[in-house]
Structure formats: C-alpha cells, structure tokens
Design brief:
This protein is mostly helical. About 80% of the residues lie in helices and about 0% in strands. Helix 2 packs antiparallel against helix 3 and helix 5 packs antiparallel against helix 6. The protein is elongated, with a radius of gyration of 32 Å.
C-alpha cells in the first residue's frame, strides 16, 4: 500500500514538473512571438500605404496575391491619397496590375490601369514624350480588343504624332504603330489606306539600314525583338548585329543599350546551339551591367540566369554553380525565400548538382523548391522539380520513391497538356522504364532472399549433424514483397 502511495506521489511530482516546464516553454514561445510581431509592426510602420501596395504588387505571382494588392489599392484610392508621379516603382506596379487583368481577359480593368499609368507619365514627362509611345500602344490594343476601334485609332494616332514630332516620321518606333493602324483600317473596310501604311512601313525599315547613333541602335534592337516575335529569326539576328555594330562605334564601353543587345544576341546563339558564343556575349553583358549598376542590382538576375544555363549546356556545371549561388542570393533578397522565382533557382541548383553526381544536396534543393511550387500552385515548376527529383532518386537506387514522384509529374503533364502531347508520351515511356526497373529489383530481392533461406537451412542442418542431434524441417518462411 505504501509503495503504491509513493508511486502516486512520484507521478504527481513528475506531472507538476512537466506542467511547469510546459508553462515555461509556452511563455518563452509567447514572448518570442510578441517580439517578432512588434518588430514586424515597426517595419510596416515605416512603409507608406503606396509602398505597401508596390511591395505586394511586385511580389505577387498568383491571382489571389494580385487581388490582395488590388484591394489595398482600392482602399488607398477611396481614402483620397493621391498618386506620386515621380515614383517609378508605382508606375511598374500599375503596369503589372494592368498586365494581370489583360491575361485574365478583364479588359475594362486593364484599360483603367493603363490610363492611370499614362497619367502618371504625363505628369512626370509631359504630354509629348517618347516614353508615352509604348503605353499608348498597349492601351490601343486593349481598346481594340473591346471593339472600341475608333478610340483605339485615336490613341494610335496620338502615339504616331509624338514619334513624328519628337523624333522623325521615319523613326523605327512608327513601325509598330503603323502595323496596328493598318489592322484597324482593314477592320473598318479601308484596304487602300492599309496598303499605304504597309508601304510606309517598308520605307521606314529600309531607311533604318543607314542609322548610326546609339538611339538608332536601341530602336533597331526593339525592331529586332518584334521580328523575333513574328518568327523572322534571320532578320532579327541581322538587326541585332547591326545594332551591336552601331553601339560599338558610337557609344562608350558601358552604354546601357549594349546589355540588351548583347543579351539578345546571346539568346539567338543559344537557340542555335552555339553555347560558347552565348556565354561569351553574356559575360560581356554582365561586366557592363556590374560596372553601371553594381554587383547586387536586380537587373543582373536575368543575365546571371542565362549565363548559368549556358555553362550548363556547355557541360561545365562547376562553372554554372557559383553563378547560380550568386543568383539565388540576389533573388531571395529581391523577392523573398518563398517566391516562385526563388524556387526556379533552387530547381536549377538541383539539376546542376545532379549532373555533378552530388545527389544528397540535389535532393535538398529539389525538396525546397517543391515546397514553394506547391504553395504557389505552379504546375509547371512542380512537374519539372518532380522529374528532377525522380531522376536523382533513381541514381541513388531509390527506385520506389522515383516511381512515385515520376507518376505525380506524369499526372500533372496529363492535366496541363493532355495525354496526346509528345511531352506526355516521353514521360510515360520513362515511367514504364522506371516501373520495369523496380519490378526487376523486386524479383532480384526475392531471389536473393530465397537463396539466403536455402543457405541458412543448409547451415542449420550442417550444425545439427555435427552435434548428432535430430534434424527437423525448418518452418516455412514467406519471401517478402519489397515495395
């Protein structure tokens, strides 16, 4: 009885100590949470409402995140807080919001934000600055898509007037405007006027061959990009090369346009499979950017990503990895550790390490990226990560895990592009090969286990015979199925 009472007392004491430690842990966690909460409040107190909106908009990469940013914008607008025309990041934010609604086919909302972008630019640069031309083009496209053809034509004619007055009537900026105007005239059953505009476009492009200033080089590069979008790769390459030659002769070694032109030429070389030339051009572009903007500027990220990919394609993952490590640091500082762009770099790091046969670190990067892609509902990123992880696990001999991850990737491909797409067929074939490999491993494991049992029985009989003992049959042992 006494021992039972003693044990109950010990139980009570143990519970009291445990409860006391629980309370201590609770208060420590609560104090830490309050500290972090107050710190976050102090950080947010230093941000104006517009700065919060800009941060949310520039970091948003899902419809819900963009809707949250837009709701804040509506609150700020209703509060009567005026827009700051000198805030360039605000212009970017509104442009991004307009682009989001364009992609969602919410054309009236897109037009509203495009108009606001124009108003901000007009306040900052005046009513006739060349910087208004591109936003006017975008606005005209939105208006045309809504069937407001006459209004779209007026918007384009304003853009054309700005180029003609601020530059010249044969400036390459007119080409995009004239093409859209020609489309409008065809829609309004005026083919003769459309033909005249097409003839003017040809004359402008012909005169562009005599351009010699850095400004002309920039326009040539823009025209080259349009040709590239239209599938005219040879003409685009020629225009980019001409732009580069003009810049080499007429600008200083660190002109900003050189970065754009060199990057574009590098992309063309990459598409042609000339990875060494692509890397050389990108290294030149990176050196110019670093000299102009410093070594930690966000504008370096696209060049660094392309450079790392170029090294990878050249079969030099050891040179690609330092570039990716630097890029990951920049992207995390710019977008945060949970952003889809960060996950893209983590995926690239995983691929890089897998090619170097550093499998455990590769798995770690894949898993980190996969968590972000799942949270962001990015089917494309998740599918590519699952495939990379599956191949790594296959190399590790973890075929069962590889099969499961590859199967999930296959389901995503079927959902996004359909089971008739070549990408699906390739993935399906890989999955069948993985399953066959797993089944072969399972057969080998069962055979090995059966051989082990036979050897064990032989040894048992041998040992018993040495002791002159009665030999009884060994109980049957089921051969396990290995997943």
């Amino acid at each position: 009885m006494r021992s039972q009472t003693t044990w109950k007392c010990r139980q009570k004491r143990i519970f009291q100590v445990f409860a006391s430690r629980q309370r201590q842990l609770f208060f420590v966690v609560a104090a830490l949470s309050l500290t972090l909460w107050h710190a976050s409040l102090r950080a947010e107190e230093n941000e104006s409402p517009w700065e919060v909106f800009i941060r949310l908009t520039l970091q948003a990469n899902t419809p819900d995140a963009m809707a949250e940013a837009e709701a804040l914008y509506q609150q700020i607008s209703q509060a009567g807080t005026s827009l700051d025309p000198d805030n360039t990041r605000l212009v970017w934010s509104l442009t991004r919001l307009a682009g989001f609604h364009r992609r969602q086919n919410h054309l009236p909302q897109a037009e509203k934000y495009q108009v606001q972008v124009l108003q901000l630019l007009e306040k900052q640069f005046g009513l006739s600055d060349l910087l208004l031309v591109e936003p006017l083009n975008e606005l005209a496209i939105t208006q045309f898509a809504q069937g407001r053809i006459s209004l779209s034509r007026q918007t384009l004619e304003r853009a054309l007037t700005i180029v003609e007055e601020m530059a010249n009537p044969n400036h390459l900026l007119t080409v995009g405007i004239l093409k859209q105007l020609a489309t409008i005239h065809l829609a309004q059953h005026n083919p003769q006027k459309a033909e005249q505009l097409q003839q003017r476009i040809a004359e402008v492009q012909e005169q562009a061959l005599m351009m010699e200033t850095p400004g002309d080089a920039i326009i040539l590069a823009r025209q080259a990009r349009r040709q590239l979008q239209e599938g005219n790769k040879e003409l685009a390459s020629s225009l980019f090369q001409q732009s580069k030659d003009i810049l080499m002769e007429s600008s200083g070694p660190y002109h900003s346009a050189r970065v754009e032109v060199l990057s574009s030429l590098a992309q063309l070389s990459y598409d042609d499979g000339d990875y060494a030339q692509s890397v050389e051009l990108l290294r030149s572009a990176l050196a110019i950017s670093e000299n102009m903007r410093g070594t930690n500027h966000p504008d370096l990220v696209p060049v660094l990503i392309k450079l790392a990919t170029g090294y990878q394609k050249m079969g030099k993952p050891n040179q690609s990895r330092p570039v990716l490590t630097r890029t990951l640091s920049l992207v995390e500082n710019l977008y945060g550790k949970d952003h889809e762009k960060t996950a893209e770099i983590l995926l690239a790091m995983g691929d890089n390490l897998r090619l170097e046969n550093q499998l455990e670190p590769a798995v770690d990067y894949y898993n980190r990226g996969m968590v972000i892609f799942r949270r962001q509902n990015s089917d494309s990123g998740l599918m590519r990560t699952l495939l990379g992880l599956s191949r790594t696990q296959q190399m590790q001999g973890k075929t069962g895990s590889a099969v499961r991850n590859h199967q999930e990737a296959l389901e995503i491909i079927a959902k996004t592009v359909g089971d008739q797409d070549p990408e699906y067929r390739t993935a399906y074939k890989e999955q069948a090969e993985l399953v066959a490999e797993l089944e072969e491993q399972q057969r080998a494991a069962r055979d090995n286990f059966a051989n082990f049992i036979q050897k064990l029985e032989f040894l048992r009989i041998k040992l018993l015979s040495l002791g002159d003992m009665e030999i009884k049959p060994m109980a049957a042992v089921a051969v396990p199925f290995l997943p």
